[in-house]
């Protein structure tokens, strides 16, 4: 790790998702549309939850934070990936690459912890409904959200500290659409096997711990509902289906990239697109289209807007 003086690479070359021009144009159109949907959908959720008093509850407070995190998660890599489809020279500066590494792991780890917090919120709401507002008060919700950001920051800075000290002295081509720790470790002029194992273990500690806590929360929910009313299991499943879907699509790619790598380049790219594009897209799609309160809030917001337009 004492290789700072050997680092002579000032930029990296990103290979992107595809080499064919036709495929690049197609991906540009598709991913641009998806990114615009992600940003507009999550912005609508933030506006609705902030402005509608009916949504000022712990669940929607956490949902607003999830929307905010999802916008950052997608914006860290997607705009760069989209613009690279139109560029011949797909280079990224050393500093830009390091920032991508930091934000990728900071935001991803923060979202993992936030998903655990949201699962805990659903557990309290379903299993301890009489004490829900006492347990999930504003102070505790704020503390849990700050905890998720703190864990994310620590996780991100740990990766940045390791990667920024790597000795890069020659190879600078990255077979992906963004900079990431495993890809940069491969380029380092050193024996990287032990370091790669260490970083995978660190990622595994965060991802697997959060995943186990999520499984425990949902298992307790289903057991509690089953014991009180067998018919209620289906209602509980319906309530948690959206959350479980987001969790699976977000966690499984992360696990296969960092914890249990398959070492198949094209598959790693697909997994990376899934957690950086499809997870942030599912949040507004599922929580607005399937949630009655969000639908009602949308109608109220549109009604207020139309009234203001008529009165003006």
Describe the fold and architecture:
The structure is a single chain. This protein is mainly α. The protein has one domain (4-284): Rhopdopsin 7-helix transmembrane proteins, CATH 1.20.1070.10. The protein contains ten helices and three strands. The chain has a three-stranded mixed β-sheet. The longest helix has 36 residues, at 193-228. The protein is globular, with a radius of gyration of 21 Å. 34% of the residues are buried. Residues 1-5 have low confidence and may be disordered.
| Tally of separate helices | 10
**How far apart are the termini?**
65 Å
Question: What's the Cα radius of gyration?
Answer: 21 Å
CATH class assignment:
Mainly Alpha
Order of neighbouring strands in the sheet with most strands? 2-1-3
Task: Report low-confidence residues grouped into runs of 5 or more.
Answer: 1-5
| Average of per-residue pLDDT values | 84
- Which oligomeric form is depicted? single chain
- Give me the CATH architecture, please: Up-down Bundle
Number of domains: 1
The amount of helix comes to: over 70%
Query: Sheet bearing the most strands, described?
Result: 3 strands, mixed
Total beta strand runs: 3
Strand content: under 5%
H/E element order: EHHEHHHEHHHHH
- Helix and strand content put the structural class at mainly alpha
**Which descriptor suits the 3D outline?**
globular
CATH topology: Rhopdopsin 7-helix transmembrane proteins
CATH superfamily: Rhodopsin 7-helix transmembrane proteins
């Amino acid at each position: 790790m004492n290789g700072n003086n050997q680092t002579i690479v000032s930029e990296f070359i990103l290979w992107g998702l595809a080499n064919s021009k036709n495929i690049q144009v197609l991906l540009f159109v598709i991913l641009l549309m998806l990114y615009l949907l992600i940003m507009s959908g999550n912005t609508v959720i933030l506006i609705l939850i902030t402005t509608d008093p009916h949504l000022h509850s712990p669940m929607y407070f956490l949902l607003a934070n999830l929307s905010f995190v999802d916008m950052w998660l997608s914006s860290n890599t997607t705009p760069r990936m989209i613009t690279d489809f139109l560029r011949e020279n797909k280079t990224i500066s050393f500093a830009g690459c390091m920032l991508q590494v930091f934000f990728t792991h900071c935001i991803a780890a923060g979202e993992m912890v936030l998903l655990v917090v949201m699962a805990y919120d659903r557990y309290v709401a379903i299993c301890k409904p009489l004490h829900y507002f006492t347990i999930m008060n504003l102070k505790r919700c704020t503390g849990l959200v700050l905890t998720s950001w703190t864990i994310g920051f620590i996780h991100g800075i740990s990766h940045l500290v390791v990667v920024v000290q790597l000795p890069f002295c020659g190879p600078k081509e990255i077979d992906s659409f963004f900079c990431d720790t495993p890809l940069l470790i491969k380029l380092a002029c050193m024996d990287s096997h032990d370091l790669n194992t260490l970083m995978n273990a660190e990622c595994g500690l965060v991802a697997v711990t959060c995943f186990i806590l999520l499984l425990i929360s949902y298992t307790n929910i289903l057991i509690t509902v089953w014991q009180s009313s067998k018919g209620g299991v289906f209602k509980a499943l319906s309530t948690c289906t959206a959350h479980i879907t987001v969790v699976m699509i977000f966690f499984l790619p992360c696990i296969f990239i960092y914890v249990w790598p398959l070492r198949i380049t094209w598959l790693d790219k697909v997994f990376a697109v899934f957690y950086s594009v499809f997870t942030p897209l599912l949040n507004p799609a599922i929580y607005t289209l399937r949630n009655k309160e969000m639908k009602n809030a949308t109608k109220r917001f549109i009604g207020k807007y139309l009234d203001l337009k008529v009165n003006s």
